[in-house]
Specification:
Layout (H helix, E strand, L loop, with lengths): L2 E2 L9 E2 L2 H7 L6 E2 L2 E5 L6 E11 L2 E10 L12 H6 L25 H12 L5 H10 L14 H7 L14 H10 L13
Antiparallel strand pairs: 1-2, 3-4, 4-5, 5-6
């Protein structure tokens, strides 16, 4: 990994350059004697900054890289194993991980109205709350996919969703309705914005 972040600026990412290391990581808790630490910008777990050196035609060259560490460090957030396994910046990456990001996810605690609005926006047509609940139950496995987090669950639900028919659906997106009427040979959108 060649990027890092620091406490208080978790939404920003910095490249591993000598200038950025000097600017952001030169004091405690980031600089601990010989070792330099930072925070992973994706999973917010501690990472160690390492200088890899090699000899190229008799000349020593170096490149910084970062690697996750699995121990808690003073002054850093506690290591979150679940987020670590889901981290896209992790070196040994697998498509599926052993534990869900939200191990204690209670399907009753999901804000289905908010999820319904997000899915309707992404699809371009309205879906009902019962259908949103069906998609969520159908897609429990997606929580074990690497890289799934609270921000991209609606996308993951749609990627793994069973086929969804258009017939009878109310279109939410005017451009989609226009394109269906202009280009579709099988469907048209009526005055009530429903697909027939």
């Amino acid at each position: 990994m060649d990027i890092f972040t620091v406490k208080g600026m978790l939404d920003k990412r910095f490249y591993l350059t000598p200038k950025n290391i000097q600017s952001y990581l030169s004091e405690s808790p980031y600089h601990d004697g010989e070792k330099i630490f930072a925070i992973c910008p994706y999973c917010h777990n501690p990472i160690q900054i390492v200088l890899a050196t090699r000899t190229n035609q008799g000349k020593a060259t170096g490149r910084y890289y970062a690697k996750h560490i699995k121990q808690n460090l003073d002054g850093f957030p506690a290591v979150n194993d679940s987020k670590y396994h889901h981290c896209l910046l992790r070196k040994k990456s697998k498509l599926f991980v052993k534990q869900a990001l939200f191990q204690d996810l209670d399907l009753k605690s999901i804000n289905y109205l908010r999820l319904q609005k997000a899915l309707s926006y992404l699809l371009g047509f309205y879906i009902s709350i019962p259908f949103t609940k069906y998609l969520t139950n159908y897609n429990k496995r997606i929580l074990y996919l690497k890289g799934i987090d609270q921000y991209n669950i609606p996308f993951a639900i749609l990627i793994n969703a069973p086929e969804i028919t258009l017939k009878g659906r109310k279109i939410a997106n005017r451009l989609l309705a226009k394109n269906i009427n202009e280009y579709s040979k099988s469907f048209f959108v009526n005055s009530n914005h429903q697909v027939n």
